[in-house]
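Reviewer 2 asked us to include a model.

Predict the structure of this chain.
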Amino acid sequence: MAKTANSAKVFSEQQVLLPDISYKSFTYPGDEEALNALKNIPGAAPLLTWLQANFTEQLVFLTNNEQMIRAGRHNFPSLYKLLERCCEIVSCPVPELYITTSPVLNAYTQGQRRTCIVLHSALVEQLSADELAFVIGHELGHIKSAHGLYRLLGDILLDYWNVVAGMIPLPGLNLLQIPLLLAYWEWYRRAEFSCDRAGLLCVQDVEPCLHALGKLAGKVEGYEDEFHIEAAIQQCEAHKDVSNKLILLISILKNAQNTHPFVPRRLKLLKEWAAGEAYQKILAGEYEKDLLGAHEGGERIKCECGTIVNSKLSYCPECGRNLQKDDDVSAAGKCSACGEELPAGTKFCPKCGAKQEGGDNKPPAGGGNESELDKLKNMAGSFFKKS
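Predicted model (structure tokens):
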């Protein structure tokens, strides 16, 4: 698999990078409006943010590390490299990547700040490198669009509604569950269309993207050459062959709780978007940008000046300081002088004493440093606070 992963189109020199691209550039119509309906629920955002930071993300992290294999420079390095390249293309903070053994072709994203992507083993084994890049790009679309926070809302509505409703003495509260769930599922389906577009932006070739979706719907080993995209897209018209209005209504109600739209429709909409002007403009560099990455999910770091910023930024937008951490000076490897094997983060070789590369990542001279006047002001402020 390592050799196959490294052959993905995303590593081509012709691949267009999309620096600072905003999620709004690839959002499916109605996705953001449906999400705003969930955001307008009083108190939802603060509650969900607190739950993510203090409970769910820590639980997910622990569970993943106990039950799965985390990809990185030593385990599944080619898969991790593929993830890093996809993140580079769509300008996204690199999430944690986990591999779990499962015969089901599936992948999913979790978290809002401590984000992760989980790939099922069957998915990795049965998709080509380009198809796998599409799936990874799709999951990065969820991160860039900050979908993780409001997916938690759906989990609460489904799993813990009775507990939460029992704690809030509000008459008729239970009547809100169904409309909230319907709004949640409608948004979730639209969000999948948006993320399919993000996957295409990673690969920049619609054919493997469509074939990846086809395999997720129905893959038969040894019959891959007998799958025809156009025939699958035609299945979107099946409702026209059903004249009974009651049957159509029952079908709509039955499928209202689906979190993912039907694959034939995903195929149709992705192919149409790939042939449209909006997609071509993005590849030409004409797209809405989010320089600070303020909206998207992913790790945040705190600058010395107190500003909280996206971890993908190199310098603080408020004070100009270098945001690279001093303790991230060297990955696991060999000493630059004597060749001794060193653990990650080693600043000085314990054998020869040589300073390792990047050992003095300090704020750059100039814009990032405080002036003498600023230092005096800060010292005075600290003094009066203590007094």
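Residues 326-331, 359-373, 382-387 have pLDDT under 50 and may be disordered. The two ends are 64 Å apart (CA to CA). We have added this to the supplementary material.
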